[in-house]
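Notebook entry, structure prediction.
Reason for the run: the old model in the group folder had no record of what sequence produced it. Starting over properly, with the input documented here first.
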Amino acid sequence: RPYIMGRIVDVEQFLRLYPCEPEEPGVCFAFDVEDTFLPWNNGRFTVLFQQGKTSLVQRRADFHVKLSIATLSALLMGYKTAARLHRLGRIEAEPRAIARLDNALLQETPYISDYI
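New structure, fully documented this time:
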């Protein structure tokens, strides 16, 4: 059985390389991230999801989301959906934001090969 865990160590760099749903016409989220271990991950990251690509932008966000680095990692690596994390109390956002976030993210099963 796999026994590995994923963690984002550099939110900004991770978001620059993160693919999103190719059919997403464009939605902008401001993620307020809290990381008690790596201080450079604390703060607001405004991200535009558009046509399969993400980019960090300096503009007014359509939606705001507040979450920990652990929750962001689980969300962006496909372990749990935004709806599920919201129901568990791990994401603070309005229901409309949760629905749009799940639409913008790729919903694929995570796979990490940890067997040598």
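Summary: The chain has a mean pLDDT of 92.
The old model has been moved to the deprecated folder.
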